[in-house]
């Protein structure tokens, strides 16, 4: 039973991380356009922001 519990927690955590990244995508894309960053610089910016705790 303990293994199933941790598997459920892992799946829930992966889903929450994906959902949170999706929620941050639109505002950060607008911020990238407002600051005038290129697409590659914006992608690096998004990667840093979504990877930070």
Structure, explained:
With 53 residues, this protein is mostly helical. It has a domain at 20-53. 89% of the residues lie in helices and 0% in strands. It contains 2 helices and no strands. The longest helix has 34 residues, at 2-35. The mean pLDDT is 85.
* Major sheet description: none
Mean pLDDT: 85
Instruction: Please write the string of helix (H) and strand (E) elements.
Output: HH
Number of helices: 2
Q: Which structural class is indicated by helix and strand composition?
A: mainly alpha
Low-confidence stretches: none
Judging from the principal axes of the Cα atoms, what is the shape? Answer: elongated
The amount of helix comes to: over 70%
Strand-residue proportion:
under 5%
Intertermini distance: 30 Å
Number of strands: 0
Topology:
Elements: H1 2-35, H2 39-51
Helix pairs in contact: 1-2
Task: Characterize this entry briefly.
The protein is mainly α and 53 residues long. It has helices spanning 2-35, 39-51.
Features:
89% helix, 53 residues, mainly alpha, 2 helices
